[in-house]
Amino acid sequence: MSTPKIISVDDHILEPGDLWQRYLPERFRADGPRLVRLKGRFGTHARSGWREAEDGLWADVWVFGDVKMEILPGFAAAGKDQNYSGGTGRP
Fold it and tell me: Is 46:74 a contact under the CB 8 Å cutoff?
């Protein structure tokens, strides 16, 4: 009996941070998505939203035009508490 081919549809895999800047045609790179390191913090828990703050901690944030999308603490991190960050902004 052969091993069944199983595909997990719930894996959290992050693309490489330089994906768009490396593979977009050069004429689109300046406007393409990019990973930027910014200072900020989360609200009361990891899913309450991230805000830029000078007194915050450094975080990797996807930037595309005017949109900023933080990488949530614990996302794609096996064995980590998905809600850990409290009000400290420390994932």
Answer: yes
The C-alpha atoms of residue 29 and residue 47 are separated, in whole angstroms, by 30
Considering the entire predicted model, what is its pTM?
0.64
Token pair listed for 27: 């004429």
Q: Are 68 and 51 contacting, i.e. CB atoms less than 8 angstroms apart?
A: no
Q: Write the pLDDT tens digit of every residue in 31-72.
A: 999 999 999 887 776 566 778 899 988 888 889 998 888 876
Instruction: Count H helices and E strands in the chain, helices first.
Output: 2, 4
Distances (CA, A) of 60 to 4, 6, 32, 64, 91: 38, 32, 16, 13, 12
Asked if 84 and 73 count as a contact pair (C-beta separation under 8 A), the reply is: yes
